[in-house]
């Protein structure tokens, strides 16, 4: 097992039943504005560029993220939904995932090829997981005094099979 760390990410390379896996845990740039999505894309590209694993005695082990057969990227990716808090919570209460997904920054950036090129998103059939109040089913932001946090699927795990 090889471990690599860059600010905002930590990566582990290992073989499980002769299959090379790479696990990347990240905390990408935060913020709800469109320019913050551009910063997140830059974070992803920088993590890909800078993450290198040392080779042990020429065993032919993967040296970069994309050299692995299975890649699991998880953590706080921070991609948001490009809708107002009110519209997002309205669609969430109606369980209208397809409308929310049309405005999901991760899906948009993926389709435009600006981040996670070659990856695909699984089917999301559950409410956005960000950001709940502690120990309840209310989203942060329902109380305007605590600050508005538009719900999103930004804390996620992504899988790529090569």
TrEMBL record:
Gene Ontology terms, MF aspect: inositol-polyphosphate 5-phosphatase activity; phosphatidylinositol-3,4,5-trisphosphate 5-phosphatase activity; phosphatidylinositol-4,5-bisphosphate 5-phosphatase activity
Keywords linked to the UniProt accession: Hydrolase
GO biological process: phosphatidylinositol dephosphorylation
InterPro entries: Endo/exonu/phosph_ase_sf, IP5P_plant, IPPc
Keyword Oxidoreductase: no
Coiled-coil region list: none
Cited Pfam families: Exo_endo_phos2
Signal peptide: none
Segments forming domain Inositol polyphosphate-related phosphatase: 8-153
Protein's UniProt keywords contain tRNA processing: no
Family classification: Belongs to the inositol polyphosphate 5-phosphatase family.
Protein name: Inositol polyphosphate-related phosphatase domain-containing protein
Species of origin: Buddleja alternifolia
């Amino acid at each position: 097992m090889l471990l690599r760390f860059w600010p905002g990410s930590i990566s582990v390379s290992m073989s499980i039943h002769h299959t090379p896996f790479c696990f990347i845990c990240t905390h990408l740039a935060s913020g709800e504005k469109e320019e913050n999505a551009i910063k997140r894309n830059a974070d992803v590209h920088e993590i890909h560029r800078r993450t290198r694993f040392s080779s042990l005695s020429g065993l032919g082990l993967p040296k970069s993220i994309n050299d692995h057969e299975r890649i699991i990227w998880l953590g706080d990716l921070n991609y948001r939904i490009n809708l107002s808090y009110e519209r997002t919570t309205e669609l969430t209460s109606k369980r209208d995932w397809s409308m929310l997904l049309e405005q999901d920054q991760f899906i948009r950036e993926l389709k435009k090829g600006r981040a996670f090129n070659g990856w695909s998103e699984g089917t999301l059939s559950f409410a956005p997981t960000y950001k709940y109040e502690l120990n309840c089913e209310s989203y942060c932001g329902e109380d305007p005094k605590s600050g508005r946090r538009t719900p999103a699927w930004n804390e996620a795990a992504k899988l790529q099979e090569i």
